[in-house]
Each structure stands twice: as C-alpha cells, then as structure tokens.
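in:
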C-alpha cells in the first residue's frame, strides 16, 4: 500500500467518524472522536477474532506507518501552531506569570511525581521497571490538550481569566513536555553515566530558549511577508511554510520545534492578525487552520484505534493504567498547588482555580503520540496501554463533567 492509499484510508475513516459524531452524538469533537475511535477499536478487535483477515490487514496497514515520524515530526507541528493561532495573546500577557510558572514548574514537578509514585507501585505490586523509564512515563502524561480544554471551558462558561490561564498553560506545557520527553529519552539512549547535570541543563536551555527565539523569528518573517501583500491564498501558504519549513529547520538546529510552533502561532494570531491581515485574509487563515486542527486530531484518534490492534493485550497493563489515573490526578494537583503556594505573591490562583485546572487539564493525543513513537527496548506496549486508559478517562469522564464542576465552584 503506497502513501496516497494510506492517507486516503485515514481521511475516509476520519470523515465517517466526524459525521457520526456531528449527526448522532453531538459531543465536543475531541470527546466524540475518542468515543467513536474506542468503539471502532473494539469492533475491529472482535471482528479480527472472527475473521483473521481483518487483523492481518490492520497489522499490515499499521506496519507501514512510522509513528515517530508521522506523529512527532509532522502532526505535532500543525497541532501546536493551530492551537496557538486561536489564542488571544493580550490575555496571555495579562496572565503571563501564572502561565509561565504552571507550564514550566508544573510540568517538571508533575513528571517527577508521576515517575516517582509509579516507580514505587510497580516495584511493590507489579513487574518493576527502571526509574528513568517511569520518569519518561511521567513526561508522557504531563502535557494537557489545549484544544480539548478550550472547547469545553468556553461552552461551560468558565471565568475568562481562569480560562486563559488554563489554555495558555496547556499550550506551553505541550512544548515543555515534548522537550522533557525527548531529553529523558536521550539520557536513556546514551546512558545516565554519560551525562552531567550541567550538560543536561545546557541542553534544556538551548532547546527551550532557542526554540522560543526561533519561533519569534519565524513569526517576524511571516509578519513581514504578509504585511506586504493582501492575497489570502498566498498568506495561507506563508503560514504553511512557517510550520513545515520552520519545524524542519528547528530540528536541524537542535532547537525545540514544538515551542517554536507555539510562539510562531501566537505571533501570527496577534501581531500579524492585527497589522498584516485584512478581514478576509484573517477569516480564511483562521478557518483553514481550524480545519487542519480538526483533521489532525481526528486522524490521530483513528491511528490510535488501529494501533491497538497490533499490541499484545496484558491485563497487568490495564490494571497499571487504572492505578495510574489517580496518580496522574494527584500529581497534577500537587504540581499546581505547590508552585501556586511558593509564588503566591506573583500569581493569583485560588483553590477553586487549582481544582478546575486539575480536573480540566485533559490529556489528549500528544501523550499517546509520544508513547507510540517509542521503540524497543523501552516498554512501548505497556506505556501505550497505560496512556490510552488515562486519556480515555480524561477525555470522556473529566471532559463530560468539567462543565458541572465549573457551575458548582464559580
């Protein structure tokens, strides 16, 4: 099966899923697509048991997809840029202190807490695995999904300052989470004995600082080009070039591509929108990237559903995933509560806001995408199952109840 056929199959399945959600379920896109993808996976697994040819086709189809390249090198750049583009940067500036503290300190602390608690539980009750593997898992579940969060919070009527803090933190913790994940992965590959604290700190500063600066430069270039013309087709192409060319160049320069996309998206959605786009161009650019975001998220859930068919089911992985749910929620709460207490003079986040950020910090496709990109000797199958359980709970249970929480506490 060639590349065009693979893309065709994914788009056709995705369009059917979107139709079923829009026509019958009428749920927020992320929640509806997750539910349909889960049902789709179960039906395929059952059908595969009755008709082995179905499992053979699915395995052959999935085997032709390089998840590391497709998810981390292609889809991630589009998802982060699209999410940042639709965020009001003026509101982000007003909440920049709380967003910065929660995105950086929150992600690092959450990954450490999840990794430590998981290491203890696996050592005590299950098959023990390396602490660095547990820390890697912590980095996998640290990011939250800004698109899922935004749609639900807006519909539920959350206070605007709380909404922008949660969405802004989600946008940046995605970038920080990917950098942390790739850094821990690199440490595991080269060995913990071969890297120093200074070397790791320099790597993180280079990746994070360099990525932010590179994203600002990308935004400036796109702004200058769009300001000199008024042609929405060309300006859409410029944004595409910023994402595709910018992400590729960031990788070559060993900078954080995810953070570069977030900053470039914020810049384009603020300064370029205000000073370089006509009303017509703004409408088309925003609608184009809204479609790209919906398509990428939908395809991601389809890929997840298909990938489950290729994994060997183990009841211990399922149980470990269920146990990891309260661990993840507790770690999320503490990773917000501790920085909020330490920096209470500079940021304003009461206990109700922390509770909402904890329950409304939905896990999404990024966590699964990073898990799917793993390869041996890392415990990929175990991590994918555990992450999938956490994401299902997060999107379906938390996503469907966060509106009730908002109405109760605000």
């Amino acid at each position: 099966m060639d590349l065009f056929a693979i893309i065709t199959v994914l788009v056709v399945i995705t369009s059917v899923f979107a139709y079923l959600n829009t026509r019958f379920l009428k749920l927020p896109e992320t929640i509806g697509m997750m539910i349909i993808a889960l049902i789709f996976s179960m039906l395929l697994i059952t059908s595969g048991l009755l008709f082995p040819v179905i499992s053979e086709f699915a395995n052959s189809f999935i085997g032709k997809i390089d998840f590391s390249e497709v998810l981390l090198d292609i889809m991630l750049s589009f998802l982060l840029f699209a999410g940042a583009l639709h965020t009001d940067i003026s509101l982000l500036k007003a909440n920049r202190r709380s967003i910065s503290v929660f995105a950086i300190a929150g992600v690092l602390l959450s990954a450490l807490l999840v990794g430590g608690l998981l290491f203890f539980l696996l050592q005590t009750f299950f098959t023990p695995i390396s602490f660095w593997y547990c820390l890697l898992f912590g980095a996998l579940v640290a990011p939250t999904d800004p698109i899922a969060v935004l749609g639900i919070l807006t519909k539920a009527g959350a206070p605007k300052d709380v909404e922008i803090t949660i969405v802004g933190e989600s946008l940046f913790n995605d970038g920080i989470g990917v950098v942390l994940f790739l850094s821990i992965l690199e440490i595991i590959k080269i060995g913990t004995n071969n890297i120093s604290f200074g070397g790791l700190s320099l790597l993180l500063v280079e990746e994070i600082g360099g990525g932010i600066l590179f994203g600002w430069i990308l935004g400036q270039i796109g702004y200058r080009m769009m300001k000199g013309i008024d042609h929405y087709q060309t300006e859409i192409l410029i944004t595409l070039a910023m994402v595709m060319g910018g992400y590729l160049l960031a990788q070559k320069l060993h900078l954080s591509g995810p953070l570069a996309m977030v900053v470039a998206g914020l810049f384009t959605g603020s300064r370029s929108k205000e000073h370089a786009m006509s009303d017509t161009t703004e409408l088309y650019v925003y609608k184009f990237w809204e479609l790209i975001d919906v398509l990428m998220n939908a395809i991601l859930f389809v890929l997840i559903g298909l990938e489950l068919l290729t994994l060997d089911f183990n009841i211990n992985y399922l149980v470990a995933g269920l146990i990891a749910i309260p661990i993840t929620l507790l770690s999320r709460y503490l990773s917000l509560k501790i920085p909020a207490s330490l920096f209470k003079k500079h940021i304003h986040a009461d206990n109700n806001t922390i509770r909402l950020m904890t329950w409304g910090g939905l896990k999404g496709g990024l966590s699964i995408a990073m898990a799917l990109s793993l390869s041996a000797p890392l415990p990929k199958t175990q991590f994918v199952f555990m992450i999938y359980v956490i994401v299902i709970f997060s999107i379906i249970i938390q996503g469907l109840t966060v509106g009730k929480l908002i109405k109760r506490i605000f």
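note: The mean pLDDT is 85.
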